[in-house]
Write a structure and sequence with these properties.
Helix content: 10-25%
Shape: globular
Number of domains: 1
Number of strands: 10
Largest sheet: 8 strands, mixed, barrel
Number of helices: 1
Radius of gyration: 14 Å
Structural class: mainly beta
Strand order of the largest sheet: 1-2-3-7-6-5-4-10
Strand content: 35-45%
Length: 140
């Protein structure tokens, strides 16, 4: 679950909570997304609409690694909303950035947060994320 808690003129911050009670596994970090209205269309650096998303792996040519990719009936897979490393508004490109710390400029320790999040996903779900759902809510 991503619980958004703050937005200003440069972006939107949230907390990502990942829990798997059956495996006694937990993970928490901060998220950073673009500022502004939610957007379903591709190619715009806009925030992801709140809702429940399916998840799958995407082999990203740009990042040269496999990353989590979210989509649902409202937001098609070809929008390519990825969860990836980055710190500042210019790094979001309509996606979700992870970080262990945040301030008024963005999120920090992003690579470490992404690596730990992906390790949790891989350890529990291997190559099949079809049973994973990501819920995004606004709390501001």
């Amino acid at each position: 679950e991503i619980e958004r808690f703050k937005e200003n003129e440069i972006g939107t911050w949230g907390r990502l909570y990942f829990r798997n009670f059956a495996r006694n596994s937990r993970f928490q970090c901060f998220t950073f997304e673009p500022v502004g209205a939610d957007e379903v269309r591709s190619g715009l650096d806009k925030r992801v609409p709140k809702g429940v998303y399916n998840m799958r792996w995407h082999d990203s040519p740009r990042f040269k690694r496999r990353l989590p990719h979210i989509y649902n009936k409202q937001v098609p897979a070809n929008r390519y909303i990825l969860i990836h490393a980055g710190n500042l508004p210019g790094h979001t490109e309509g996606c979700i950035l992870l970080g262990f710390n945040y301030d008024e400029r963005g999120v920090w320790n992003s690579r470490a947060a992404l690596d730990e999040f992906m390790a949790k996903l891989r350890s529990m779900y291997k190559d099949d994320l079809s049973s994973v759902k990501l819920k995004i809510i606004n709390d501001f």
